[in-house]
Design goal:
By secondary structure, the protein is an alpha+beta fold. 18% of the residues lie in helices and 35% in strands. Strands 1, 2, 3, 4, 5, 6, 7, 10, 11, 13 and 16 form an 11-stranded mixed sheet that branches. Strands 8-18-17-14-15 form a 5-stranded mixed sheet, with no helix packed on it. A two-stranded antiparallel ribbon has the order 9-12. β17 and β18 form a beta hairpin. α3 runs antiparallel to α4. The longest helix is centred in the first third of the chain and has 10 residues. The protein is globular, with a radius of gyration of 18 Å. It starts with 6 loop residues before the first strand and ends in a 7-residue tail after the last strand. The chain binds 2,5-dioxopentanoic acid and magnesium ion (MG). The site of 2,5-dioxopentanoic acid has 13 residues, from β5 and α3.
């Protein structure tokens, strides 16, 4: 959890709010869905009420901060992402064009059931040979597409599948356990996403095998611009979550492996850490 700030988190199944270092539990019946159907000012009014302090037990389980929201993602919003796609793809042309175009790349990333929270296993595909985590600032929007807060996202991706043909993007991006989210939502009226460091560390058998950092200041697009395109001609009745693209991609000779541990830190948003497992090549029952 982040050390300071105003945060919402799902802890042992109940929605908690931390203000000035003290946790409280929101009343029964309040869910991320019900909170994201409120306007920003209604949400702020509700969360500003005084509540009794609650203790959080050691070893409490922090779940992903999502109920029924769809997760969407923006692509090629950082120079590093453009470079990596150019390296892996059969043609760099679609990526060059989208980097410079007025319309951003936006794609559907995950249903809530495909999302994993802190400490849960994230998956790489059974039919992919080149896989990476993508550490991304995640924007949490309400039903009016007002930004209510921010969290950490991991857009786990298959570079071999996307690189073979960009039309395979949904298969490179969407599968069970393809998206990490959490640990908490930093509320928008107390958190600015500008100039925040994003750091990625990948460990294998106890040793760090890759680490890098970037800053949200390197993003080429603004958050309002991304949300404007996302909200064209569609509604999100209980809000949505938008990953804003990656500015860190490991070098081309790196691929994730079963047992790796991926740690993403964003300044003010805490740590999202997940182990990696490979899907077995079997159909679920
Ligand atoms: O263009 C494909 C996906 C790009 C992406 O996920 C990113 O830039 O983060
Ligand atoms: Mg991405």
């Amino acid at each position: 959890m982040p050390a300071t700030g105003l945060h919402l988190a799902r802890i042992d199944g109940a929605i908690h709010l931390r203000r000035r270092g003290t946790w409280s539990v929101l009343p029964d019946g309040i869910s991320f869905d019900s909170l994201l159907r409120l306007s920003l000012s209604e949400l702020r009014g509700l969360l500003d009420k005084e509540r009794p302090a609650a203790s959080v037990r050691d070893g409490a389980v922090v779940g992903p901060p999502i109920d029924s929201q769809e997760v969407w993602a923006a692509g090629v919003t950082y120079q590093r992402s453009l470079e990596a796609r150019t390296d892996e793809a059969i043609s760099s042309d679609p990526y060059d064009r989208v980097y410079a175009a007025p319309r951003p790349e936006l794609f559907f990333k995950a249903t809530p059931g495909r999302v994993r929270g802190p400490g849960e296993a994230l998956f790489i595909r059974s039919d992919s040979s080149w896989d990476v985590p993508e550490p991304e600032l995640a924007v949490v929007c309400n039903s009016r597409l007002e930004v209510i807060g921010y969290t950490i996202g991991n857009d786990v991706s298959s570079r071999s599948i996307e690189g073979e043909n960009p039309l395979y993007l949904p298969q490179a991006k969407v599968f069970d356990g393809c998206c990490g989210l959490g640990p908490a939502i930093a509320l928008a009226w107390e958190f600015s996403p500008a100039d925040r460091s994003i750091a990625l560390e990948i460990s294998r058998e106890g040793s760090v095998v890759f680490q890098a950092a970037t800053s949200t200041s390197a993003i080429r697009r603004s958050i309002p611009e991304l949300i404007d395109y996302l909200g064209r001609d569609q509604r999100f009745e209980s809000g949505c979550i938008l990953l804003t693209g990656t500015g860190i991609i490991p070098p081309s000779d790196f691929t994730l492996a079963e047992g790796d541990v991926v740690a993403i830190r964003i300044d003010g948003l805490g740590l999202l850490e997940n182990g990696i497992r490979r899907h077995p090549r079997t159909r679920p029952a």
